[in-house]
Amino acid sequence: MHDSHSSRKTTDPRDAGFSLLELMVVVVILSILALVIVPRVIDRPDQARAARAQSDIAAISSAVNLYRLDNFRYPTTEQGLAALVSAPASPPEAANWSGYMDRLPQDPWGQPYQYLAPGVHGDFDIFTYGADATPGGAGPDADIGSWMTE
Q1: Which single residue of 44, 118, 124, 140 could bond 131 by disulfide (Cβ 3.0 to 4.6 Å)?
Q2: pTM, 2 dp
């Protein structure tokens, strides 16, 4: 006769689950991965904002150059970038004005782009002050200008 109890496998309660050592090894590995990956992920939004600002500045620069082609001069600092959206009300007149942009974008930090004509770095400067909205700075607070995209 065959004993039904002898064919069953017995499990040792010590083999069930994970040991404390195994759990500690997993926690250490996850911690090391977090230390390596998290700083890179945190920098991504700042890099994306800077890239968007450079893209916006390039588009606005193209519109300013088209304005000059039609009107033989750049908008003045007083007329500002608003001259790209609506005909300037202040002199000099823009006799051949046509819409160059539907709307002026704001920088990625919610501030208007700055414009100087003549510029410090070229015929005109278009720039943003960065996250801190003040001149100078480093990292996400650094200024980004049209002279950097050329």
Answers
A1: 140
A2: 0.69
On whether the CB atoms of residues 72 and 46 are closer than 8 A, the answer is: no
- Tokens (6 digits) for 44: 């991504």
In a domain, 91, yes or no: yes
**Residue 76 domain-assigned?**
yes
DSSP-H helix ranges across 72-110 = none
Per run of 10 residues, the mean pLDDT along the chain (length 150 residues) is 54 68 88 79 79 92 94 93 92 89 93 92 92 84 81
Provide the CATH number for the domain around residue 79: 3.30.700.10
> What domain range includes position 106?
20-148
Indicate left, alpha or beta for 130 from its phi (over 0: left) and psi (-120 to 50: alpha). Answer: left
Of 97, 149, 87, 95, the C-alpha closest to 124 is: 149
Instruction: Please check whether residue 66 lies inside any domain of the structure.
Output: yes
On whether the CB atoms of residues 80 and 57 are closer than 8 A, the answer is no
The answer to whether residue 135 is domain-embedded is yes
Torsion of CA 111, 116, 119, 124, to 10 degrees: 90
